[in-house]
């Protein structure tokens, strides 16, 4: 049996990206191994998984795409289905208020059965995110 260990994200500002995930989702700082010249931050979502945030090499040209921070496509209603992480929350309406208070642009929808609500948005580096309500079935 396998478990999710961590998700890696590159960023031009690892502190900013770590702070976003801590404020929006409740990630916590964790011990970060020394990688020498490579700047990294490790954060942990208690009981779930860790995120490894890696300083982007400025000389590396990232591919353009709707999930790239340099892309012109930043409308959450066009978030590509194959390029996002999904979280679930127990209080969906409260979470929506938090996003609105932070000025984060979102796109919302409800599945046809009406049981699951979804909100789509981007992190500060243009990575796609989804948050879904927990089904009350």
TrEMBL record:
TM spans (from-to): none
One Pfam family of this chain: Glyoxalase
Superkingdom per UniProt: Eukaryota
Family annotation (InterPro entries): Glyas_Bleomycin-R_OHBP_Dase, Glyas_Fos-R_dOase_dom, VOC_core
Domain (VOC) ranges: 3-134
Protein name (record): VOC domain-containing protein
């Amino acid at each position: 049996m396998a478990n999710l260990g961590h998700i890696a994200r590159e960023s031009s500002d690892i502190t900013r990206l770590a702070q976003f995930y801590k404020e929006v989702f409740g990630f916590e700082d964790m011990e970060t191994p020394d990688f020498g010249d490579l700047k990294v931050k490790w954060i942990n979502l208690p009981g779930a998984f860790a995120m490894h945030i890696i300083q982007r090499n400025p000389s590396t040209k990232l591919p353009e795409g709707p999930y790239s921070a340099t892309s012109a496509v930043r409308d959450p209603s066009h978030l590509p289905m194959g390029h996002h992480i999904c979280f679930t929350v127990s209080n969906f309406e409260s979470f929506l208020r938090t996003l609105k208070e932070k000025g984060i642009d979102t796109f919302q929808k409800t599945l046809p059965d009406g049981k699951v609500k979804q909100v789509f948005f981007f992190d500060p580096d243009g990575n796609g995110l989804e948050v879904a309500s927990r089904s009350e079935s």
